[in-house]
Design a protein that fits this description.
This protein is an alpha/beta fold. The chain is built from ten helices and eight strands. It has a five-stranded parallel sheet with strand order 2-3-1-4-8, with helices on both faces. A hairpin with a 5-residue loop joins strand 5 and strand 6. The protein binds BIS(adenosine)-5'-pentaphosphate and magnesium ion (MG). The site of BIS(adenosine)-5'-pentaphosphate (AP5) has 35 residues, from helix 1, helix 2, helix 3, helix 6 and strand 6.
């Protein structure tokens, strides 16, 4: 299965992606994670991406498309993959059409008023990438899954989140219509449902796509 995960920053893409990838034995490819790993390792791509991710703007399309195009040729993609955070604008979507055949686009709709709190309160595990929210951590600073240290992403501050939401509304939201016209959109509501409940809804639909 070849899937795209669409949704605003904080909609729960990463949270659902790990669960979906595990259940269907497909690879989770997050362009945001790829950029963060490159920044951490001080690579050329990381040096270029840093100013964009820190300010909430999109990394230039040519760089991002080239990374994904190459990544999809790896052996582990043969059983399928889940793209999280790509494509993010019309240019990227049209580019993807030239080198991939997507089976479905999981779109997580969410009340925009929830996003600022979700993102500014998010803590992420340095080791396994699991996401938490401060409101449920009760002061715990390590990951319940692997014991790794929890940290706050540099772009999870009110100013950068504001910019990320604006970029989403202007450039990424039109993709719902783009994939809707292709008959690929699978819509879900992520506002009220806890992550596990939302995952159950997604599985019901994806099981039929397999
Ligand atoms: P990226 O890493 O993709 O960030 P994002 O799109 O802003 O999305 P997030 O990862 O912040 O949110 P999420 O939807 O994954 O939410 P999560 O599951 O963590 O991109 C970062 C940057 O990289 C971009 O700004 C850009 O600069 C660059 N970039 C990436 N891709 C690019 C591309 N294609 N082109 C150009 N540039 C690109 O959940 C959020 C919080 O909510 C957590 O605290 C979680 O615990 C909580 N939560 C999740 N689900 C629920 C639920 N159901 N109920 C209650 N709480 C929940
Ligand atoms: Mg994410």
């Amino acid at each position: 299965m070849k899937l795209i995960l669409l949704g605003a920053p904080g909609a729960g893409k990463g949270t659902q992606a790990t669960k979906i990838a595990e259940r269907y034995g497909i690879v989770h490819i997050s362009t945001g994670d790829i950029f963060r790993a490159n920044i951490k390792n001080g690579t050329e791509i990381g040096l270029l991406a840093k100013s964009y991710t820190d300010s909430g703007k999109l990394v230039p399309d040519e760089v991002t498309v080239a990374i994904v195009k190459d990544r999809l040729t790896w052996d582990d993609c043969k059983n399928g993959y889940l793209l999280d955070g790509f494509p993010r604008n019309l240019y990227q979507a049209e580019a993807l059409d030239t080198f991939a055949n997507i089976d479905g686009v999981v779109n997580i709709n969410i009340d925009p008023n929830l996003l600022m709190d979700r993102l500014c309160g998010r803590r992420v595990c340095r080791e396994c990438g699991e996401s938490y929210h401060v409101s449920t951590l009760n002061g715990v600073t390590t990951c319940a899954r692997c014991g790794g240290e929890l940290y706050q992403r540099k772009d999870d501050n009110p100013e950068t989140v504001g910019e990320r939401l604006a970029v989403y509304n202007e450039q990424t939201a039109p993709l719902i219509d783009y994939y809707g016209k292709k008959g690929l959109i699978l819509n879900f509501t992520g506002s009220e449902a806890p992550a596990d409940v939302l995952f159950g809804e997604i599985v019901k639909v994806l099981d039929k796509l397999q």
